[in-house]
Every structure is written in C-alpha cells, then in structure tokens.
Amino acid sequence: MLEFIAFDADDTLWHNETHFCAAQERFKALMQAYLGDTYDGNHLYETEVSNLPHYGYGVKSFALSMVETAIQLTGGRISAQDIHALLELAKEMLGAPVEVLPEVEAVLDELSGDYPLLLITKGDLFDQESKILRSGLAQYFRHIEVVSEKNTHTYGKILRRCGIRPEQFVMVGNSLRSDILPPLELGAQAVHIPSPQLWAYEHVQLENLRPKAYTQLRSIGELPEWLEAQWYRPQAHSERRSA
C-alpha cells in the first residue's frame, strides 16, 4: 500500500528552466558580439555537462560554465566588464522570484493531510534551500532532501534512512532521468508530469524507457484523483485529516 509521496521541486513545483533559457539567450547575444552569428549555444551546454563532476548542478555551476565558455570561444579576448556582466546575470537568476506552478499548493495542501510528503531536489544547497523557503511550500513536507545527484543510490539511501519500503513510495517529477527511472529501478512507483521546458541533459532515449512502467499525467492537479484510483488512502492518515 502506498504510504509516502515524494515530489521534485524545480519545474515540478515552481518554474526554473525558464530562467536558464532566458540567461542562455543573453549569453548567446554576448558571444555573438564577439563571434558573429556563428555561435549557436552548443558549446555552453557541452561545457556545463563536462563540469558536472566538478561543480554539480545549479546556477553557480552554470555561471562558471558561462565564464569558461566565453574565455575559450573568444580566445581570452572577453573583457572584464563582460565577465562581470555574466556574474551579475547569475546573481539575477539566484534572486529571481520563485513562481509556484498552478494547482501545486492546493494539491500539496490536500495530500499532506493524508500522506507524509517528501521533497527531494538536487542542486546547490544554498540556492535550493532559499527557493524552498521563498516558495512558501516547506510547511507541507514531512521531510526535505537536497541532494547532489538523483540516482538509485541516492533514492535508496533516502528510503532506508526514512524507513520506507520501495513499494510504499511514489516519486512525482518532471524529469524521466532524475525523477522517474531511478525510483522504478528500486521497485517504487513514479508519476511523470512533463514540463514545457526541460534541460537537454535530462532527456532520456526511448529505448531506456522500455519496459519501464510509470504513469504520466498532464498536470499536478490530476494527481489526487489518480492516487485515489490506485490506492485507498491510509485509514490512520484519513482519521488525522478529519480530526
């Protein structure tokens, strides 16, 4: 029986990738001032991915990759003023308002009365903690984890630490790579809620999905009805909700 529901944060509970897409356009414009229209943005992505083992995920890693890419592509000609502009861009991203997605708070409010909710997000600890606080959603979660990577090892550690068996657990998120496949490998359930924008690194080849069984919903607003259809809500939790 399902006992615990976990949620991803970025682009599941609030907008995130939109900030990166906007920053990439500004970076592209800066590079085109040096290189003309030959710059297409691919080099920045390649630098980001190669830097993941060094810097991890998040805005700070992205900022360092922008600076590195700019220095490489301009042969060191980029000005100190333009490097400063890239750092200021990163600060803008870190301070951007947290825009909670539609239906999210209503769903969390409903489900938190019936289930212990977990939040599992990856990225820079300082930035993720700041977004969680500013989102106003922390009150709905029994347990919050900010991790450096989302894989079977990470999910397994969290489940063991919380005393949760995989068959009691469902993970909800927008990334097949990070939120769906690892829990499935452990024998848990997973619900995929696609986001309009997804970082290329999070895409998964179709052959890696078969024969993986997971549920895809159009929006988080469909989650309570899906849960109701799949499992009866635990009696103890229902009694606590009505108390």
Automatic annotation (TrEMBL):
Listed InterPro entries: HAD-like_hydrolase (IPR051400), HAD-like_sf (IPR036412), HAD_sf (IPR023214), PGP-like_dom2 (IPR023198)
Annotated Pfam families: Hydrolase
Coiled coil: none
An MF annotation (GO) of this entry: hydrolase activity
Keywords attached to this entry: Hydrolase, Magnesium
Domain of life (superkingdom): Bacteria
Keyword field contains ATP-binding: no
Protein known as: HAD hydrolase
Organism listed in the record: Meiothermus granaticius NBRC 107808
Record lineage: Bacteria, Thermotogati, Deinococcota, Deinococci, Thermales
